[in-house]
Design goal:
The complex is a heterodimer of chains A (82) and B (215). Chain A has 82 residues and is an alpha+beta fold. Chain A contains two helices and three strands. Chain B has a single domain, classed as Class I glutamine amidotransferase (GATase) domain (Rossmann fold). The model of chain B has no long low-confidence stretch (mean pLDDT 96). The chains are: A alpha+beta (82), B alpha/beta (215). Chain A: One of its GO terms (biological process) is 'de novo' IMP biosynthetic process. Chain A: One of its GO terms (molecular function) is phosphoribosylformylglycinamidine synthase activity.
Chain lengths: 82, 215
Amino acid sequence: MFVAKINVTLKESVLDPQGQTVLRTLHDQGKNSVTDLRVGKYIEMKIDANSQSDAESLAKEICESVLVNQVIETYRLVVEKV
Amino acid sequence: MKVRVVTFPGSNCDKDVGTVLASEFGASVDYTWYKDSFTDLPDLVVLPGGFSFGDYLRCGAMAKFSNAMESVVSYAKKGGKVLGVCNGFQILTESGLLPGALLHNRTLKYICKDVDLIPVAENKIAKGLQGNLSIPIAHGEGAYFADSDTLERLEKNGQVVFRYKENPNGSLHDIAGICNEAGNVLGMMPHPERAVNPYTGKMDGKQILEALLKK
């Protein structure tokens, strides 16, 4: 059994109003050393596969067809054996 | 005149648009549940507003995998006319029938108000629409986004159908609605079906639906 850990964030070129709002709040609290903040989402999937590479290729396919809209988002994928 | 309205779990404007098309334009309206397919060629297919699949993951992301959407894609590829309103527009971009994506409104607020739309004269669908059109919007994720190459292509091909007079949500190029290159698929965030009946105090949506139903 494998677990795919996926972080989805908006691309750098896409304005993230949610991140900007949180950043503004931090600055209002005087935490000006925080210079950038992006809000994304974290997805975890358990995959029953024969090998690490099978699990990775299925996870990648699911990311690119369902979990991520590549017009606006980018993702990081890590697959671990559990 | 035959119209097909697709209903997804969470659609809430399907009956609104169907009722308006039947009562104001005499259309014979069929509703298609998302699990069902169709193979006929109605005069118009509508993807209505609402919150398909609860807007989970991303607005419109789940809807694109339904049987009904497979039929819509094949109908559109044969040149059939498709109108996507609000969540319907989001589904059209997610399914690749229209380019770009809809982001959270820049203000992060859900916006529900009347806006003025400027029909873009160079666009085939908008040609003939008179003056600025007052049409309601009601959305949280309606800021149109596309990369600069796509925007340039949309402008060059005359695919921008409507722009906001005063941009409410941060849409790039003030875009409120676009069509595909062939001009048979239209997606727009404002709700023309809510501006057709004098009881609502607004009639400008009628021009838009008329332009679409025109052969």
